[in-house]
Amino acid sequence: MSVEVPVRQPRPPSLAEHVVESLREMILSGEFDEGAQLRQDALAATLQVSRIPLREALRQLEAEGLVTFFAHRGAVVAGLSLGEICELFDVRVILERDLLQRAIPNMEPSDFACAHEVLEAFDSAFVAGNVRVWGQMNWRFHAALYQPANRPLTMGVVQNLSTRVDRYLRLHLQLSGAVERARTDHRRLLELCRRRKTEQACRLLCRHISDAGRELVQFVSARRATQSATASAPRRRVAD
Known about the structure:
The protein contains 9 helices and 2 strands; from the N terminus they run αααββαααααα. By secondary structure, it is mainly alpha-helical. The chain has a two-stranded antiparallel sheet with strand order 1-2. It is globular.
């Protein structure tokens, strides 16, 4: 006689988790610019929560590098200097190459299937113009390849680095057309992993990350220069 094992349903997110996810998405989507003050009363009203879970969420986002607290301004959206963006991508190259090198020998058909499924979802989001999920899909694909390395601490660090540049990367992919190159690289990378071509896969991964970092720095630098010029330009007087 067989015994049916009940399927455990996923736990719904708590109020604190919901607030964190909502605030994170508001920042990553560009709803708040870097340096913008996050007024807790207004946010609490928008999210329909009290200030206690809101403060907890802001502290968690501070740990993720998305929020900074100042003595007389409170919480503001953290920004990254060009040097910090370069450093983040340099660190990613080192850590992610190590993860992939360790993962490939342990990869099984289910890992390849998971990565392929993410690429299909990414393509659907691209066709639909759903920019909001591009960063999430990008991380899910890389995570599917790295998971067989069995290095959870390193994975946590890499995910945090990915989150910190997500808002810039979304804008860059949306406005520059770089998403096409990312999709091509991802499919080539998955194929090399299937064929156990470890060295070739690692070289492609390093180039993929380095190119993305260099292009992102150029994009952010040009965008900030344009914004600065626009802000400092004298306003034309309207004739009476």
